Fold:
Amino acid sequence: MRRCALLAFFALGYAGYLLLGALVISAVERPYESSLRAELRELKAAFLESSPCLPEAALERFLGVVLSANRHGVALLHNASAAPSNWDFASAFFFCSTLITTVGYGYTTPLSDAGKAFCIFYALLGVPFTMLLLTATVQRLIGALTSGPLEYLALKWGYTRRSLSCGHLLLLAAVVLVAFFLVPAAIFSTLEDKWSYLDAFYFCFISLCTIGLGDYVPGEQPGQPLRPLYKISVTVYLLLGLLAMLLLLQTFHKAAELHGLSDLVLLPQDPPPEEDHERILEGQEPPSEPAESAPVQPPLSAGGQPNYASISR
Structure:
């Protein structure tokens, strides 16, 4: 009953967190959107005024086609893309990696029905395979980077694993922050001319949390040097970063279990039947050896009196 009440409390808190996020992001972004809309209307009006032979309906159709193509990664402007095609090997490799890791930037999407059908079946097998590979790898890293250090420090310093878990979690979080957020953000902000450091850090966070909004995609600026190698390197970074994030989440889960936080909401796990059987057997006392009893007397006759054959000679 207590766990259900806490779960309901957390659900209400989660709903309140969503409402708070909607209010904040709406208050922050709506003025910028209104300003941009007003600017575009002014540009459109100025263009139509300078081109009286161009009907507004024709301009609307043209802009609709251009914007629709741009949503699929096809740009009409000169030097708008780093490659003549969005489906060269490096771009296709990068797209497949974002597809099966569920990052899914959405900047490049399949145009044909055959491509959409292929993505469905490719992700149907690729996503579970990726999750299995990442989980199996993290299980092996847990022993070397989480359980092993805690046991070593507990034996060397005499502290309990519970007291060491918080410090170990903070240390691991600091290493992940530096190795997969701060340093890569500095590299991306250097390689991408239009990205500030905040933009690059935002890209790293959105990518490694598998949110993948797609507003920032590396390797798409005109004249990108060594673009195929750059795209493949970003793919390797994404895979290693997802491993690090999953390792950090597993370490946090183990620390929560050691401090009893998981027991507040999660249901207790039922032990396997083999363990139940062993516990039952361990709880039973071994049967005592029967004491030596007296020789069994033969039964009496139907009348209740001993007969001649029953008397021992």
